[in-house]
């Protein structure tokens, strides 16, 4: 009987400890000064739209390209944002260019990866695409939206 009471006491203590710890630990997105780290607005992210990864003042995105597709199809940033895009070519011979910003990668054979940065210094919708052959016409394109 004493063993049963001891086992129940241990279970209760472990449960109370877990409850106490989960309710009293600091929030994951807070730094030592207690200010919140930047977060992306998940509710604003539409299907097939890439949420940014915030790194200081630069918004980072990864665009994956293969045989006649680019993913995601939409990237959204704000005017004045510094933008870093990593293009991952997973199948074929491709590049990634952004219309209106003189930014992009060289043409490369998969598997390959290249990054580039630019400042989104004008608002509007700008197509990004693969410039190899007729790949753009075959669907290798997406839209950069600058608000």
Overview of the structural elements:
- The protein has 147 residues and is of the alpha+beta class.
- The protein folds into two domains: 1-37; 42-146, Cupredoxins -  blue copper proteins (Immunoglobulin-like), CATH 2.60.40.
- 16% of the residues lie in helices and 39% in strands.
- It has one helix and 13 strands, in the order αβββββββββββββ.
- The longest helix has 23 residues, at 2-24.
- The N and C termini lie far apart (69 Å).
Give the helices and strands, then pairings.
Elements: H1 2-24, E1 49-50, E2 53-55, E3 58-66, E4 69-71, E5 74-77, E6 82-89, E7 93-94, E8 97-98, E9 103-104, E10 108-109, E11 112-119, E12 124-129, E13 141-146
Keywords:
147 residues, five-stranded mixed β-sheet, alpha+beta, Immunoglobulin-like, 39% strand, elongated, single chain, 2 domains
Q: Sketch the topology as an H/E string, one letter per element.
A: HEEEEEEEEEEEEE
The amount of beta strand, in percent, is 35-45%
Q: How big is the Rg?
A: 23 Å
Count of β-strands: 13
* Separate helix tally: 1
* Strands in their spatial order, largest beta sheet: 1-5-13-12-8-9
What is the first-to-last residue Cα distance? 69 Å
What CATH architecture label of the largest domain applies?
A: Sandwich
CATH superfamily of the largest domain: Cupredoxins -  blue copper proteins
Helix percentage range: 10-25%
Domain module count: 2
> Can you tell me the CATH topology of the largest domain?
Immunoglobulin-like
CATH class of the largest domain: Mainly Beta
Low-confidence stretches: 24-47
Shape: elongated
Helix/sheet category: alpha+beta
Q: Would you tell me the overall average pLDDT?
A: 78
Biggest sheet layout: 6 strands, mixed
